Amino acid sequence: SKLTSLGQLEMTWRSRVHFHPLLVRVLHKSRLRYYGKPEKKLDMPYQAYFEVADGSGMMSMVLWNSLCPEWYNSMKVGTVLLLEQYAIKTSYPFKTQPTPGDSQMKRFATIEISLNVRDPPTKISIIPEEMVKPEWGLPEVKYRFITRSELDDLPNNHSCDVIGLVTFVGRAERARKREHGEDFWLYRWAHAIDGTSDQPFILELFATSQPDVFEHIHPMTYLVCTQMRVVRDLTENPSSTIYLTTSNESQIFITGWHKGQPYTKDTKVKNFIQWTKTQSEADQMKKTVIGGYYPFPRPPNNFLKY
Question: The organism sits in which domain of life (predicted)?
Fold first, then answer.
């Protein structure tokens, strides 16, 4: 059928009601958002953002309400979608922005694709990877993997992807979203090593929309975390309190989930796998820890500073 591109959409969307089908690849995926309120009677008040791209650039796509439970888990990073009967809206200005792996990619930030059950009822098709043709010109998923030895030189809030062997995982903890609210964020701390430094990656992992992965992070698993943000304590000793925290677009993968993921082709991921082959599993097992209370960043040594 006659296709359109994201670039053409941006130029012509105001003058049209119906749009030609789109062929795009998912490059980023946000966590699922629940926006239900007691007074609003919505059956499935869910929303999820994706960043999708074709040969012309990248644009946000929003999945609404009952389409979320139906499609959210199938739309993975790297999935190719054929979209028909979608709506175009002006962009929501306050949403988070992932950092693209390809810094040259054009970003269409004024509009977003809206997928709904009605007005109009969107038709979504997933194209299997083996049927994707090179002439479609869809971009590959690119990553920004760093090694532990590179982390100390990165600025606060820098976005990166990491892979490591888990040596410690803490218990799940809760933090209030707002001071007197009843909603909580669920998170856990983890350490992962990659052989490039004596220090581990210290990871603050908030529960994303992948409970099956979040609950099964164990020592000795290969952990991949994408779209992580560097957090530095710029006041005290900066090198001592550097860690990585998840963002709205972070994805987490553990052993058993890596097969077929786009990052398996990345050079730094391949280097890490080579390094793990040189390690003795029994030696690493002795150094692993699970559970317990992990105060981080550590409180100061004396009470007055605290």
Answer: Eukaryota
